[in-house]
């Protein structure tokens, strides 16, 4: 993956060194479940915080000095974000006849406030807040991808960012509004299926982005990078994470899709490059 020297997005805010180690009032198996939900990526942080009854403290301070590795990850993230702006800006004009309003990326240590989604926590993993149209990420998640989930290569983190941008696309198109309205009308089991469809569509949009990266942005990918992306999608499948954490999986509790499903929808986006080919909500196999 060639990204060095690429343009870096200005829709970026660095809050590292400005947050404290807030405490979350959750223990026992409940805490384990919430940690798993967070690591699945892309969940609804506002709902998560309401369920947890979180109690955090935030302290402000000066932005700390970054290590060489942190500086590299920062530059990488900003180049990837810029590439999503380049790709989606062109696609929206060509395929949706509309302008693309970019999302913002906030990086932080441990916890940070959001504008409408409560308090973000590193344990949740990267997430998108529809209320402020912002992606929040503790970049130490990159080590989680490698060490905990076994996702290899730089493109694994690029996939994660592209997945969260996928949620931004859904927000712009009104999908998240519709799915959130369904939450109050369904049982948890029924809504889990809607959640899976929502997450798989974000994977599809990540694949669409990857399809156009070489043509429409400063990043150059090889097919090996795409394979790394598919492996990253598989690594954060519900079945894989649950089996890793508890030795078995419970399909009724899946909220993001299996490893096979996540890989398949990412690949479909990459293969087609068609913004309109990712209607996961009409896929009978997911109902």
Automatic annotation (TrEMBL):
Q: Where is this region: Disordered?
A: 1-20
Task: Write the signal peptide boundaries.
Answer: none
UniProtKB keywords: Membrane, Transmembrane, Transmembrane helix
Q: Which InterPro entries match?
A: Uncharacterised_pept_Zn_put
State the compartments where it is located.
Membrane
| TM region(s), chain numbering | 21-42
Annotated Pfam families: Zn_peptidase
What GO CC annotations are associated with the protein?
A: membrane
Main subcellular location of this protein, as a coarse class: membrane
Membrane topology, from the record: Single-pass membrane protein
The protein depicted here goes by the name Metalloprotease
């Amino acid at each position: 993956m060639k990204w060095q020297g690429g343009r870096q997005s200005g829709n970026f805010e660095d809050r590292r060194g400005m947050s404290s180690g807030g405490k979350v009032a959750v223990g026992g198996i409940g805490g384990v479940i919430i940690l798993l939900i967070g690591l699945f990526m892309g969940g609804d942080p506002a709902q998560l915080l309401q369920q947890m009854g979180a109690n955090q403290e935030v302290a402000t301070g000066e932005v700390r000095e970054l290590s060489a590795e942190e500086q590299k990850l920062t530059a990488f993230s900003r180049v990837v974000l810029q590439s999503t702006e380049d790709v989606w800006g062109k696609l929206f004009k060509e395929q949706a006849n509309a302008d693309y309003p970019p999302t913002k990326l906030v990086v932080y240590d441990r916890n940070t406030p959001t504008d409408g989604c409560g308090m973000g926590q590193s344990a949740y993993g990267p997430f998108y807040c529809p209320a402020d149209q912002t992606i929040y990420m503790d970049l130490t998640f990159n080590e989680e991808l490698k060490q905990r989930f076994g996702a290899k290569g730089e493109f694994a983190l690029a996939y994660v960012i592209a997945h969260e941008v996928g949620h931004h696309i859904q927000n712009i198109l009104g999908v998240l509004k519709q799915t959130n309205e369904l939450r109050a009308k369904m049982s948890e089991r029924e809504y889990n299926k809607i959640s899976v469809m929502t997450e798989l569509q974000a994977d599809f949009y990540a694949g669409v982005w990857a399809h156009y990266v070489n043509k429409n942005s400063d990043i150059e990918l090889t097919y090996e990078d795409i394979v790394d992306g598919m492996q990253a999608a598989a690594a954060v499948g519900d079945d894989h994470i649950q089996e890793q954490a508890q030795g078995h999986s419970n399909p009724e509790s899946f909220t993001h899709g299996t490893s096979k499903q996540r890989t398949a929808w990412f690949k479909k986006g990459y293969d087609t490059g068609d913004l309109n080919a990712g209607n996961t909500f009409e896929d009978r196999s997911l109902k």
